[in-house]
Amino acid sequence: MSKLNEPGRRGGKVVDAGSTRRAALLIGTVTAVALTTSACGAGGQSGQDRTANGKPVNGRTFTQAIASDPGTLDPHMAVTSVALQVDRYLYDPLLHLDPDGKPVAGLAEKWTVTTDKATFTLRSGITCADGSPLTAKDVAANINFVGDPANKSPIAGLNITPGTKATADDATRTVTLTSGAPDAFLLRNAGSLPIVCAAGLKDRSLLAKGGAGTGMFSLTDAVPNDHYTLTRRKDYTWGPGAWKKDQPGLPERAIIRVIPNASTASNLLLSGELNAAEIYGPDKKRLSARKLFHIDYLSVMGEMFFNQAEGRVSADDGVRRALVQSLDLAKIGKVLTGGDGEPATGMVTAEPKSCTGDSVTGNLPAYDPAAAKSALDAAGWRTGPDGVRAKDGKRLALDVIYGSQFGPTAAPTAELVQKTWQDIGVDVALKSADSSSVSRAMFDTGDWDVSMNPVGSALPSQVVAFLSGPKPPQGTNFAHIENATYEAKVREAMTKTGEASCPDWLAAETALVKEVDAVPYMNSVNSYFGNGARFELSQDSITPTSIRMYS
């Protein structure tokens, strides 16, 4: 068995900077950080790695499982991991990253950048899924759409700072971007924006259905909650860096099947009906024992947020502290990860890391359930005859939402949290939700008190709009956080470039953790398994240009 354990490096290949954005905010998802590639055993039998002794073969269909339906496929409006995975087949970014985090050509062949301005020169000959040419003006319109606050793109503040404007010169294929605010990671952020074509800019309903793409595949059939069929574009030549379209083993089609149950997906992998699936929990051990090809990655999995909107009991700083203090986060994390995890040291852990440091250790309330009860008593939350605390006639009741897509450990983890909080006098109602439902709750209905859905990030600048600023429906600050220290440190960081900004980013994140605005507590080792195909991961999902089919 060979194992590659150098952070961010996958066989010396380039990775998709579009995944930098895709890792940026994945509410209700797992976000990949460090990657290791592992190919174990021989092929030839059902349940074994059929690629080990095989040869790349053309003309095949690659079939991948996702855990829930992606909903809208508009890459400027989607935030769930399943939607972003499908979008990676359909929409390309301006830049990709090499294994060391250095930019390489995507849709753009050249670029220059400062903290507030970037210029991209497009490759020649790029066409859209409908055969029309992609122009510099189209790219500028993509940037302007996301940068215009009136459009309420949930990725504004990730790739593109609100207020950012772009101009274009079609004659030179040049796009010039002026950022709405200084950005220490402007090249990576703007370069990772998925680009759509003119038809989709004119009619965004096309994008919701996966049309008007710039990527390697086009969507040819869609049955929501069942499958999505994509066909490889023969005119696609602008893959990462020096990628070539005549490489052996490229799939002719890709079918993305919606399979919520991890055991079902595992069985289909073993039978060869699936070529790839992300697997959590006990099924990982079963597939590993059968020696399937797999890629392991470290993910942000154990993380909590509290709804601090006016009128919510979780807006009370003392309540939040007592709730966290009552939890044995190490035990909860062990249940969540099936014992295959490690304590979190920060919210931003994607490789290659932009900044290092530990914002978590010693900054969360220490586990002490007796102290938590005493704190609630002292704050006036008195236990009633039904065992539930109340203050000024208001019950201490919480609606806790958790993601069903996390597999079989999600429910018992939520139930352990529920039991712990019930023991200190809290009325807790649990709600299991798929990725789309989590997104609606966070950004639309606001019908939640505690979210057990992690927020992943590749760069610290990419989560600013989700942890500060305008709240839904005007903005994306889903937890209604108001943390003055965080905001001040972010402003300082944004005036600096690269590593020079890292101490400020660390201080900003630490402020969130200390105020219990964010509670990162456990990372998980998760796996993508393959059968009859090999592929690479960049951040949290499969890189379409890396897929190779085997006999």
Description:
- The protein is an alpha+beta fold.
- It is built from 16 helices and 26 strands.
- The strands form seven sheets. Strands 1, 2, 13, 14, 15, 19, 20, 21 and 22 form a nine-stranded mixed sheet that branches. Strands 3-12-11-10 form a four-stranded mixed sheet, covered by helices on one side.
- Helix 7 runs parallel beside helix 8 and helix 10 (329-337) runs antiparallel to helix 12.
- The longest helix has 14 residues, at 410-423.
- The radius of gyration is 23 Å and the shape is globular.
- Mean pLDDT is 88; it is low at 1-26 and 28-47.
- What's the overall average pLDDT, rounded? 88
Largest sheet: 9 strands, mixed
Distance between the termini: 20 Å
Q: Estimate what percentage of residues fall within beta strands.
A: 15-25%
Number of helices, counting only DSSP H or I runs of 4 residues or more: 16
Low-confidence stretches: 1-26, 28-47
Summarize the model shown:
The protein has 551 residues and is an alpha+beta fold. It is 25% helix and 23% strand.
Annotation keywords:
551 residues; alpha+beta; 9-stranded mixed β-sheet; 4-stranded mixed β-sheet; 16 helices; 23% strand; disordered N terminus
Write the layout of secondary structure elements.
Elements: E1 2-4, H1 18-22, E2 31-39, E3 61-66, H2 81-90, E4 95-97, E5 103-105, E6 108-113, E7 117-122, H3 136-147, E8 165-169, E9 174-178, H4 186-191, H5 198-202, H6 205-208, E10 217-223, E11 227-232, E12 253-258, H7 262-271, E13 276-279, H8 283-289, E14 293-306, H9 317-325, H10 329-337, E15 341-343, H11 369-378, E16 382-383, E17 389-391, E18 394-395, E19 397-403, H12 410-423, E20 427-433, H13 435-445, E21 450-451, H14 464-467, H15 484-493, H16 502-514, E22 519-530, E23 533-534, E24 537-538, E25 541-542, E26 548-549
Parallel strand pairs: 3-12, 19-20, 19-21
Antiparallel strand pairs: 1-2, 2-14, 4-5, 6-7, 7-9, 8-9, 10-11, 11-12, 13-22, 14-21, 14-22, 15-22, 16-17, 17-18, 23-26, 24-25
Helix pairs in contact: 7-8, 9-11, 10-12, 15-16
